[in-house]
Specification:
Elements: E1 2-11, E2 18-26, E3 29-33, E4 45-48, E5 53-56, E6 63-67, E7 72-76, H1 80-99, H2 104-108, H3 110-138, H4 144-180, H5 257-264, H6 266-275, H7 280-299, H8 307-316, H9 326-349, H10 355-365, H11 372-384, H12 388-394, H13 402-432
Antiparallel strand pairs: 1-2, 1-7, 2-3, 3-4, 5-6, 6-7
């Protein structure tokens, strides 16, 4: 499929100068022709993006270059916007080739991976423009025209960044709506009556100073991870989860891999149901780590019957730090599940506006492990998290019946406790085997 095509100016030589050529970007290769009407007669040249570097010219706002192992191709567009469009698409295509299409975000959220690459390219362009602006301001004689051009370019890049981020979230939301057959809007529709949320039942611990989960205290007599749900309670969102952490049977603190993965696959959809667009990134990351663990299990199922045996196998073969290792994927999944547990309990205890609760839970679980870019994404997520009333509705509360509200609270608490048992077991295993959890 053709990703982008159109006329670009190509530098030929000092006699011919800049000549207009028709360029086509398809399947990781940039091909050019004499013009649009001579495609059938054959191309004049082609370049594999995988073996090329894309270089934005530091001075000319219309020019960019492709640098291969054997030559450098000089290109120009007619407008700044067109250069931006080509550079972003070329960078996205190259990133997709470099990263491959095994990332679970591609499977779970098809448009997310593509837009993530676009954002990475935009970030690079924006950094270049900021450096250029810095150089201009350091000149003794400031060129106001260059300053104005640089400011305009930065504004355009910021607008493009926001538009791409919006496209990313919109595309992912459509994917999730299609799967669930419902709506996952983060806010209540107009005219929806407000509801009163009473004090949650049977909750004695506060968010501030919550104690770490002890697996033995919260495990049932048959070895399951969670507290069994009273049958008399009305059904909620959690009742429709096929495989739950509460039903996860652990034998001597060994977590069965298949059962764990079957329970974990419910987490991405739960997060989107609870947080809407705000938790899309976390949902994709969890799906990605689940897939990496599943891939490792599929490679050697007999030696990976439990999470512990899978990690021991990587320890014995010195693969704990290898790319896409189960050890690293499970470590990140442990951190992400810790956030989910904290946030679900935080929802129960929190006020209507959950922004502060979200931020506190993020700071306790994930923030210390994230880079600056990820931290900024979660800062925005915290400000856009749905209100408690909307989350309760998404989990089954009708806004009226107190017994349904009690059931939602009870199920959230039970589900959180079960996650806590699992994460506690994983944490102790990493510590006992001297695997870093920092």
């Amino acid at each position: 499929m053709i990703e982008l095509e159109g006329y670009l100016w190509k530098w030929t030589n000092y006699f011919g100068g800049w000549q207009q050529r028709w360029f086509v970007l398809k399947e990781g290769t940039l091909t050019y022709y004499q013009d649009h009407n001579t495609i059938a007669t054959g191309c004049r040249g082609s370049f594999k993006l995988e073996a090329s570097n894309i270089i934005v010219h530091p001075v000319d706002p219309l020019r960019f270059d492709l640098n291969t192992s054997t030559q450098r191709i000089y290109l120009k567009t007619d407008t700044k916007h067109l250069r931006q469009k080509w550079v972003i698409q070329l960078g996205t295509t190259k990133a997709n080739i470099s990263e491959g299409l095994t990332d679970a975000a591609v499977t779970l959220l098809p448009s997310f991976h593509e837009h993530k690459s676009e954002l990475r390219t935009l970030k690079s362009l924006l950094t270049d423009q900021i450096d250029k602006l810095y150089d201009i301001c350091n000149d003794e004689d400031i060129d106001k025209e260059k300053l104005r051009e640089s400011r305009t370019m930065i504004n355009e890049l910021c607008e493009e960044f926001l538009a791409t981020l919006n496209d990313c979230t919109e595309g992912v939301m459509k994917t999730e709506v299609g799967r669930s057959g419902g709506s996952i809007s983060g806010k209540s529709p107009a005219g929806t009556p407000t509801m009163s949320l009473g004090t949650p039942p049977c909750l004695t611990t506060s968010v501030e100073g919550r104690e770490p989960m002890n697996s033995d205290e919260n495990r049932t007599s048959d070895g399951c991870a969670g507290v069994k749900r009273p049958e008399k309670l009305p059904l909620t969102y959690f009742s429709n989860i096929g495989d739950r952490f509460e039903d996860l049977r652990m034998d001597q603190d060994h977590i069965p891999t298949v059962a764990f993965l079957d329970a974990a696959v419910a987490l991405p959809k739960l997060l989107v149901t609870v947080g809407g667009k705000s938790l899309i990134t976390l949902s994709a990351d969890i799906g990605n780590n689940i897939q990496k663990i599943r891939n490792r299990y599929d490679a050697e199922p007999r030696k990976s019957s439990s999470l512990q045996s899978m990690i021991h196998l990587e320890i014995s073969t010195s693969r704990t730090h290898a790319k896409h290792s189960a050890t690293t994927a499970l470590l990140w999944l442990f951190r992400e599940m810790s956030f989910v547990r904290e946030f679900l309990l935080g929802i129960i205890e929190g006020e209507s506006n959950l922004s502060g609760t979200f931020t506190e839970c993020y700071e306790r679980t994930l923030k210390n492990y994230h880079n600056v870019m990820s931290k900024s994404v979660y800062t925005v997520a915290g400000k856009t998290i749905p209100y408690k009333e909307d989350i309760m509705r998404s989990l089954g509360y009708d806004g009226i019946t107190s017994s349904i509200l009690d059931a939602v609270y009870a199920d959230m608490k039970s589900y959180s406790r079960a996650i806590g048992v699992v994460t506690f077991t994983i944490e102790q295993f990493y510590i006992n085997n001297k695997l870093s959890i920092k």
